[in-house]
Amino acid sequence: MKFHSPATATAAALLSLSLLHISLATPISGEFAVDGKVIELNDSNFDSAISTFDFVLVDFYAPWCGHCKRLSPELDAAAPVLAQLKKPIVIAKIDADKFRRVGDKYEIDGFPSLKVFMHGVPTDYYGPRKADVLVRFLKKFVAPDVAVLESDSDISNFVKEAGTVFPMYLGFGMNESTISKFAIKYKKRAWFAVAKGFSDNTMEFYDFDKVPALMSLHPTYDERNIFYGPFDDQFLEDFIKQNVFPLCLPINPETLKLLRDEERKIVLTLVDNLHEEKSKQLVKVLKAAASANRNYLFAYAGLQQFPDFVETFGISKSLELPKMVVWDGKEEYFTVIDSDRIGEDDQGSQVTHFLEGYKEGRTVLKTISGPSFMQFLNSMVGFKLIIVIVFATAVIMLFLFAGYEEERPRRQPLRPESNEVERPADKED
């Protein structure tokens, strides 16, 4: 029989406890410790990390970028929550300014850039970046395409868990195969579920009186619409597309990002201050018009709340507001001759007159202008193209002045140091 000293026994016990704690808290997946912390990657282990985990959110950052520094604690807070999901999502980050090979491979042209890798396949992430909302947003990537609900309590739990970031589509008395194709197509933009079991109380609560029925629900905007068919692909997708957004969408830095994939023309109303009672009344008028014109997306923005955006439409003072335009979501918009300004009397008729004028072609085509457009809209050139332009201009200037100045030592390539460079859609308040 072997005997150990008390000190030796204590050390052995502590070592065993430490190893047990590590095994429980930080399970090892290959070379990566999965402990709910953000994983720092480099060019040598990036591909390995992407292939190791089924779902990875990668933050392509630069150390000098202020927005990257503000995003970092949000990712730190979200990482342990996402790691505890039934299908965990790992958060990783890489200095894409230092490891340019990786940044170039994934076409990173601004910081921070976020991509979700699902089974190794990347998709751009344009959702919210505050930790709690980011978690809800990312849950969609690992959720079933169509949830099957068997009871009233399942329905209530589904609505509660889905939160308010995305719209929901609930099919009552429908088979999941009816909407599965669209659930996959619109997975990043909405929740989908079918209820196989539900009571009369649920029908009364959601205000539908027959099945099958498909309900769209926007908790944030307190909007609900019911579709009773026909349930062929064309009509079904039309209903889904038209209800991804609320009847009248408020434009702000977050909702602006959601317009990337919108195909409809945007009937945009610009007001001075969204908090004024007269602006709220106008929004009610716009919602009524939107309900009857679902082929357009109706939206509104306030000069006081979002000046950089509103001013891109040629607005220089509040006296010019309210004003309506039809925007393509990119660089161009239309004004309607003698109908773009909205007075305070009989606004419903004025909105109708504006829409009629647009449909009849009584319009003037204009281009969005100003530095704010360079900050917020997708049609802007990327960071790399800016560098190319700057470099080309510098070369031309060197040739022009070569005969007037002595040759100077060749300068290092243009590299950002203290100034931040970012894509417009990634700008935050």
TrEMBL record:
<dbReference type="InterPro" id="IPR017937">
    <property type="entry name" value="Thioredoxin_CS"/>
</dbReference>
<keyword id="KW-0472">Membrane</keyword>
<feature type="region of interest" description="Disordered">
    <location>
        <begin position="409"/>
        <end position="429"/>
    </location>
</feature>
<keyword id="KW-1133">Transmembrane helix</keyword>
<dbReference type="Pfam" id="PF00085">
    <property type="entry name" value="Thioredoxin"/>
</dbReference>
<feature type="compositionally biased region" description="Basic and acidic residues">
    <location>
        <begin position="417"/>
        <end position="429"/>
    </location>
</feature>
<dbReference type="Pfam" id="PF13848">
    <property type="entry name" value="Thioredoxin_6"/>
</dbReference>
<comment type="similarity">
    <text>Belongs to the protein disulfide isomerase family.</text>
</comment>
<keyword id="KW-0732">Signal</keyword>
<keyword id="KW-1015">Disulfide bond</keyword>
<dbReference type="GO" id="GO:0005783">
    <property type="term" value="C:endoplasmic reticulum"/>
</dbReference>
<feature type="domain" description="Thioredoxin">
    <location>
        <begin position="19"/>
        <end position="143"/>
    </location>
</feature>
<feature type="transmembrane region" description="Helical">
    <location>
        <begin position="381"/>
        <end position="404"/>
    </location>
</feature>
<feature type="signal peptide">
    <location>
        <begin position="1"/>
        <end position="25"/>
    </location>
</feature>
<dbReference type="GO" id="GO:0003756">
    <property type="term" value="F:protein disulfide isomerase activity"/>
</dbReference>
<dbReference type="GO" id="GO:0034976">
    <property type="term" value="P:response to endoplasmic reticulum stress"/>
</dbReference>
<keyword id="KW-0812">Transmembrane</keyword>
<dbReference type="InterPro" id="IPR013766">
    <property type="entry name" value="Thioredoxin_domain"/>
</dbReference>
<dbReference type="GO" id="GO:0006457">
    <property type="term" value="P:protein folding"/>
</dbReference>
<protein>
    <recommendedName>
        <fullName>Thioredoxin domain-containing protein</fullName>
    </recommendedName>
</protein>
<keyword id="KW-0676">Redox-active center</keyword>
<dbReference type="InterPro" id="IPR036249">
    <property type="entry name" value="Thioredoxin-like_sf"/>
</dbReference>
